[in-house]
Amino acid sequence: MSTNLENSAVATGLEKVSFHFNPKERQCQRMFIYHTITHISHANKVMLKILQARLQQYVNLQMFKLDLEKAEKLEIQLPNIHWIIEKAREFQKNIYFCFIDYARTFDCVEHNKQWKILKEMGLPGHLTCLLRNLCAGQEVTVRTGHGTADWFQIGKGVHQGCILSLCLFNLYAEYIMTNAELDEAQARIKIVGRNINNLRYADDTTLMAESEEELKSLLMMLKEESEKVGLKVNIQKTKIMESGPTTSWQIDRETMEKVTYCIFLGSKITSDGDCLLLGGKPMTNLDSILKSRDITLPTKVYLVKAMIFPVVMYGCESWTIKKAEHQRIDAFELWCWRFLRVSLGLQGDQTSQW
């Protein structure tokens, strides 16, 4: 294995991957409504894990940007944005946020530009060559209930389900940010002596500024540099959120949507920093299950604890809990148990086993 890494050689068979698609909903007619499951050989995973460890030492992300070692810890970024909103309110500043959405992000990475970027960022030639050999020789097949398709090659994008995909895309995104010169831009916010204008987690990029004009200039800088390497900002899905008044925006003759809240890394972020509870809709969606006579009461209680409360408390590490928030959380819990009791038609003395 070590010899392969040093000689940039790929063992026969390691470049073969199979895909399996699971529908996100019933009777799916479009491909993007499917979840993709990637089947990679164990030997391939071992080599990719070693290669990932070799690549980590060449990644140097700045403060407020996730490094690869912490790439899966979303709770690191969620407190950051809540903390910024709270500090802005404390010092009575208006903060303007732009939540960037790229169109088909991981599928649009161009391989030739990827190798050029890796070289410019100082990666050793043998590692870059090994990555290039893995991508150039990769063959893919698709498995369905009707059989297995013929093998074919993929000529664009980072590999679906690959351990290195996030690592390689982070390097790609870092190159874009460096060339866009966002860190040198005058448009930024100052929080407790620190000047920042962006937060990033994989392809989720958030721009921040103290005025509309500054935020728009940051967006245009990022958009132009992204297009140079093949990534396109989806203007229709990119959101603008502000703590002060704002006017309508148009980029390339497309109007950008202004919102009072946004789902950021699975957590609801509001312009006033309020941590709204999101469990009401999932609770009502369970109505038919909670009314079922075929499911026991302990099972229904377990479902509420397993499927509702985690939704409500997601990202709670970033909350500032005050007396009002305590009361709202307690009130929601009582509402859940009351909803379950009403669904079952139980009286108060019949719920002691909960």
From TrEMBL:
<protein>
    <recommendedName>
        <fullName>RNA-directed DNA polymerase</fullName>
        <ecNumber>2.7.7.49</ecNumber>
    </recommendedName>
</protein>
<dbReference type="Pfam" id="PF00078">
    <property type="entry name" value="RVT_1"/>
</dbReference>
<dbReference type="GO" id="GO:0003964">
    <property type="term" value="F:RNA-directed DNA polymerase activity"/>
</dbReference>
<dbReference type="InterPro" id="IPR000477">
    <property type="entry name" value="RT_dom"/>
</dbReference>
<feature type="domain" description="Reverse transcriptase">
    <location>
        <begin position="3"/>
        <end position="269"/>
    </location>
</feature>
<dbReference type="InterPro" id="IPR043502">
    <property type="entry name" value="DNA/RNA_pol_sf"/>
</dbReference>
